Amino acid sequence: QVQLQGSGPGLVKPSETLSLTCTVSGGSINTYYWSWIRQPPGKGLEWIGYIDYSGITIYSPSLKSRVTISLDTSKNQFSLRLSSVTAADTAVYYCARDTITRGMDVWGQGTTVTVSS
Amino acid sequence: EIVLTQSPGTLSLSPGERATLSCRASQSASSSYLAWYQHKPGQAPRLLIYGASSRATGIPDRFSGSGSGTDFTLTISRLEPEDFAVYYCQQYGISPSFGQGTKLEI
User: From the CA of A20, how many Å to the nearest CA of chain B?
Assistant: First the structure.
């Protein structure tokens, strides 16, 4: 049974870079697509981007200039980097396995990130 | 970019009743790439429906999805207490996106 575990700092200073990692267990990262989604306080879900098993990435147009998603197959992990953060980037960040045609079927538990000095 | 608009924003119903949630796309969306999720506070979202009408593994048959083109619907035939949550539709176009959500409350 595939499980995802997100990890990373819970507090990031404004203008710095947010970095999160999602570790995949119970299955290989060398298949499927791997997505990041976030939910700001009191708001809905926002898709950030995904990476496929070959390393090809697609990002949300609104975040594209600041986002990098990468894959580390040796560690069965994928990562999110979001640069130049502001308070508007405060959110719960979720990682998910993405099948595209069959939806995002496995999710991590969510990592709360606060942007504050 | 396809924008998904969900309605109503909040739906107030009682256990045992039928719930009908709408998701409208700003331009035609492929049915193959339309999904629905349930989200409860403090939990990760849960995939309910993919391909507009196919139930994900382990999802009770009281949940059903339908629609095509720009209009999609999630129906919960008889509400159980655990069904009260926020529901999101999601599409995969050139740029995937979620609707703003419908809160289903008792």
Answer: 17
